[in-house]
C-alpha cells in the first residue's frame, strides 16, 4: 500500500478538484477564447498551434484530431527539418528552443494568412522560442490565444531579451492552474510528482472548441469538424473538408 500522501487516490482527488474549479473559474476566459476561434473560422482563417516539449501534447489537442476543427495547423521545431531543409541533426540540440530566430523561421515556413489565429502553449510561458513566436505573430497582426500556467510564469524570470512572457503578449490567456513546476504531489524531503497541466489543458482546449462550435451553430454555420478516420467514410469525408484549406494545413504521419 503506497503512502496516502503520494498515491493514485490523492492525485485523482486533487486533480479532479482543480478540474471542477476550472470549469467555473475559467468560464469568462473560455468564452473569450471561443470568440477568437469562431472569428478565425468565419474569416476563413487557420488556427496555428505551437508549443515545445510536453506542450506539444496540447498542440495535438488543437490541430488535426478527431472531433476537432479542420482549419488547424501544427507548428513544430521539427518543421526546420521537415519543411526547411535542415539536417536532422539540428534536432539533437536540447537548447534549440532557446536559439534566436527559430520562431521566425517556423512562422515563414507555415506562411500563415493575416486572419489566422495563433494558439501558443507553454506551461512556463518564458522560453525564448515561445515568446519569440508570440512577438512575431503579434507584429504580423495575428490574434494570440495563450495556454499557460500563470502561477509558474509569475514565479520565474523572463527568458527572452525583451523581458516579455507569453501571457504579456496574448489577447486571451487560458490559465491551466498548474503549480510552479507542474507536479501536483509533494514528495517527502522535497520535489514533487505527477504533472497536472495536461489534464487541465485538455479541459480548457475542448471547452473552448465546444463553445466556439456553439457560436458558429448559433450563427447558422456548421463547424468544420473532423470525423475519426477509423469509422466508415471518415477519412474520405475529412479529405473533402480539408480541400478548402489546401496548402495551409499540414497532415503528416505522427
From TrEMBL:
<dbReference type="InterPro" id="IPR050099">
    <property type="entry name" value="SIS_GmhA/DiaA_subfam"/>
</dbReference>
<dbReference type="InterPro" id="IPR035472">
    <property type="entry name" value="RpiR-like_SIS"/>
</dbReference>
<feature type="domain" description="SIS">
    <location>
        <begin position="37"/>
        <end position="215"/>
    </location>
</feature>
<dbReference type="GO" id="GO:0016853">
    <property type="term" value="F:isomerase activity"/>
</dbReference>
<keyword id="KW-0413">Isomerase</keyword>
<dbReference type="GO" id="GO:1901135">
    <property type="term" value="P:carbohydrate derivative metabolic process"/>
</dbReference>
<dbReference type="InterPro" id="IPR001347">
    <property type="entry name" value="SIS_dom"/>
</dbReference>
<dbReference type="GO" id="GO:0097367">
    <property type="term" value="F:carbohydrate derivative binding"/>
</dbReference>
<dbReference type="InterPro" id="IPR046348">
    <property type="entry name" value="SIS_dom_sf"/>
</dbReference>
<dbReference type="Pfam" id="PF13580">
    <property type="entry name" value="SIS_2"/>
</dbReference>
<protein>
    <submittedName>
        <fullName>Sugar isomerase</fullName>
    </submittedName>
</protein>
Amino acid at each position: 500500500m503506497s503512502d496516502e500522501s503520494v498515491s493514485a487516490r490523492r492525485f485523482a482527488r486533487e486533480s479532479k478538484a482543480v478540474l471542477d474549479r476550472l470549469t467555473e473559474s475559467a468560464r469568462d476566459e473560455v468564452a473569450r477564447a471561443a470568440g477568437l476561434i469562431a472569428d478565425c473560422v468565419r474569416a476563413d482563417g487557420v488556427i496555428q498551434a505551437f508549443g515545445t516539449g510536453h506542450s506539444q501534447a496540447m498542440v495535438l489537442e488543437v490541430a488535426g484530431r478527431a472531433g476537432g476543427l479542420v482549419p488547424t495547423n501544427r507548428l513544430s521545431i521539427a518543421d526546420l527539418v521537415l519543411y526547411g531543409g535542415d539536417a536532422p541533426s539540428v534536432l539533437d540540440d536540447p537548447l534549440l528552443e532557446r536559439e534566436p530566430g527559430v520562431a521566425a523561421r517556423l512562422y515563414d515556413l507555415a506562411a500563415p494568412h493575416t486572419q489566422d489565429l495563433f494558439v501558443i502553449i507553454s506551461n512556463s510561458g518564458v522560453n525564448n522560442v515561445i515568446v519569440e513566436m508570440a512577438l512575431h505573430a503579434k507584429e504580423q497582426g495575428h490574434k494570440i490565444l495563450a495556454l499557460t500556467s500563470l502561477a509558474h510564469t509569475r514565479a520565474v524570470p523572463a527568458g527572452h531579451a525583451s523581458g516579455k512572457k507569453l501571457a504579456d503578449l496574448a489577447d486571451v490567456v487560458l490559465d491551466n492552474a498548474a503549480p510552479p513546476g507542474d507536479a501536483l504531489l509533494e514528495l517527502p524531503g522535497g520535489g514533487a510528482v505527477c504533472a497536472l497541466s495536461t489534464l487541465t489543458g485538455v479541459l480548457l482546449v475542448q471547452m473552448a472548441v465546444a463553445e466556439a462550435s456553439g457560436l458558429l451553430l448559433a450563427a447558422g454555420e456548421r463547424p468544420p469538424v473532423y470525423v475519426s478516420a477509423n469509422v466508415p467514410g471518415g477519412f474520405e469525408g475529412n479529405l473533402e473538408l480539408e480541400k478548402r484549406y489546401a496548402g495551409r494545413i499540414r497532415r503528416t504521419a505522427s
